[in-house]
Specification:
Radius of gyration: 23 Å
Strand order of the largest sheet: 1-2
Helix content: 55-70%
Mean pLDDT: 88
Largest sheet: 2 strands, antiparallel
Shape: globular
Distance between the termini: 50 Å
Length: about 450
């Protein structure tokens, strides 16, 4: 048992050690620049550990050289990434114990450890709010006597509020007895967070329930299922379902391959559960399905697709995969093949989190059809006052999403600055004609600002 735990630790440190030198990216800067107010030292430590506040820019560390102990400086980024690695390593160890401390659970832990779909929780400090609910849920399974404490901590996070539903049908179903009270205690916080997301990130189409939304939900399910098992595309900005409720709404209700994958998988899970006795394999598939459903775009309160949404469901899918591949002839070779594939993909894509340059460049390499990746690249050129380069990149993004309001108004602003007023008027008119329903007030205000000469740039 201890040998297997040691191997889990070794694999995690070997794979993710180089991320200690990585810098902050994306939302990390928001938390860094606008931290909450800490009430005391213990509260500050809680905020830092949970990712709501960054560590100080300089913290003391100790290094040994020539038999003597010396104090050195550990950068804030190093501390953040060290904590994130330790959390991911602990999650993998918890997988091993939560699922029975067996050969199957050991394989599941290694599969999860190396799977690049989990990178936003493994590497990205701001993804800690998705990693910690996983840890607390697994600890509640591994140590049932302390489950109320762990479940209370895990459901404090919005991403973990519904996670305990995965325990329905498991051998640890009885620890759900404390959940009605826990859900009640967190209900106001959860409702407020969801409403805030819907009000700030969603369009009218996201809030409407109609039968065609089932198509959208099934194809989203199929996409996550495929991506978790075969991580063919690892990026911060997926093109799949981008602008699904806006300029590319016409694509979101089509019967693409992910719809058929999702429909086939759901039908297969249902038939397997109906025709065979309930077992750990079907429970793992059920747990994956029940935890990914909130992120399947039926009612959206978040961005359309993000790998961090699959981090918790992937725990159960890797457990199901481990059961499947360890039970067939030649399992050692198959296990090695999966681990080699996952580790290789992780090794080559984790550089995405090195700094702000790499997060955009790798996103475009992994998925050149994501207009948002080109848009972010253009924003970086804009910030350095390279207006012509920014214009080129926004035009490149527009070739992917031809009616995107943000792109059209940003292009109009670039053209205005470059003294091409006639063409700027054309793109401003196109922007006005492509306002997304539900965003009329804000969009018209930006257009009026442009006409008054303030020339807004929209992220």
């Amino acid at each position: 048992m201890f040998e297997k735990v040691a191997w889990i630790i070794i694999v995690n440190l070997a794979l993710y050690f180089r991320t200690l030198r990585f810098k902050f990216v994306s939302d990390d800067f928001t938390v860094w620049k606008n931290p909450p107010v800490a009430k005391n030292a213990w509260h500050r430590l809680w905020l830092q550990m949970t990712g709501q506040m960054k560590f100080y820019a300089k913290s003391v560390r100790f290094v040994r050289a020539n038999g003597k102990l010396f104090a050195a400086i550990l950068r804030a980024e190093e501390l953040e990434h060290l904590v994130t690695i330790l959390i991911h390593t602990t999650i993998c160890i918890a997988i091993y114990f939560a699922f029975g401390a067996s050969w199957i659970s050991f394989v599941a832990a290694l599969l999860y450890s190396t799977n690049p779909v989990n990178n936003q929780g493994t590497i990205w400090p701001s993804g800690r709010g998705y990693a910690l609910p996983i840890l607390f849920l697994l600890l509640s399974m591994a140590i049932p006597l302390l489950s109320p404490l762990f479940l209370y901590a895990g459901t404090w996070y919005t991403a973990g509020f519904l996670a305990p539903l995965a325990l329905v049908g498991s051998s640890k179903w009885y620890i759900l007895a404390s959940m009605p009270l826990i859900w009640y205690l967190h209900s106001k916080k959860f409702t407020k967070a969801v409403k805030n997301k819907q009000n700030t990130e969603c369009f009218d189409e996201d809030k409407v329930i109609h039968p065609r939304k089932l198509i959208l939900a099934i194809k989203t399910f199929g996409f996550y299922l495929t991506l978790c098992i075969i991580p063919f595309r690892i990026t911060f900005y997926h093109n799949f379902l981008q602008s699904a409720a806006g300029s590319m709404k016409h694509k979101c209700y089509t019967f693409c391959r992910y719809f058929w994958i999702g429909a086939t998988a759901l039908l297969g899970i249902g038939l397997y559960a109906a025709l065979r006795p309930w077992d750990p394999f079907i429970w793992a598939l059920f747990a994956f399905a029940i935890t990914i459903v909130p992120f399947c775009n039926f009612i959206r309160a978040n961005q359309e697709i993000a790998e961090r949404f699959a981090a918790l469901p992937n725990v159960f899918l890797m457990y199901a995969l481990a059961q499947l591949i360890t039970g067939i002839p030649g399992s050692d070779a198959i296990i090695a093949a999966f681990l080699a594939f996952y580790a290789t993909r992780t090794f080559y894509t984790l550089i995405m989190y090195k700094d702000e340059y790499y997060i955009t460049e790798l996103a475009i390499i992994e998925d050149e059809n994501a207009w948002w990746a080109w848009h972010c690249r253009a924003m970086k050129r804009w910030e350095t006052q390279s207006y012509r380069e920014a214009l080129i990149l926004w035009v490149r993004a527009l070739l992917i999403s031809k009616n995107e309001f943000k792109l059209l108004i940003n292009i109009a602003t670039c053209l205005r600055l470059l003294k091409n007023d006639k063409e700027a008027d054309i793109y401003l008119a196109k922007a006005e004609a492509n306002i997304v329903p539900g965003q009329e007030k804000e969009a018209k205000e930006f257009i009026e600002q442009h006409r008054r000469g303030k020339l807004p740039i929209l992220l």
